[in-house]
Amino acid sequence: MLKGKVLKRQTREYVLRLHEYFEKESPNGGPLIPVTQARDRVAATLGISAPTLAKITKEGFGSSGMEQNKLSTPKKKRQPCKANKKYEIINWFLDNGEEVDESLLKVELLKILKTKKQPKQCLIDEMAAEHGHTVLRIPPYHC
Length: 143
What we know:
This protein has 143 residues and is mostly helical.
């Protein structure tokens, strides 16, 4: 469930579309589109085209989010920066078990975030640690 998550405006619009669609089904006494036509039913419910739904399905959008990301980063979790939206910063705090006041301004959230700065975790460091090695890092151009 999305308990404790801040929903974007577009997500809220989809929730409203779902609600309106199911409200239309109530006086009908059943589904407007047969349940066996799942793809058409989802497209009609969300107000999107069938090709758009097919594209999203093909990309592998599952219940846990994008399962086959086209772009992936070797870092596990990125800490938000000032380029992120306020709700993304709040979600990061909640995902990391931090309590945060949602009425704070984005600038104030970023100040709190600086105090919670985590060291960078690189995939190569984790792989080396698994084999009992430590990666030594020196500043660039200090060879």
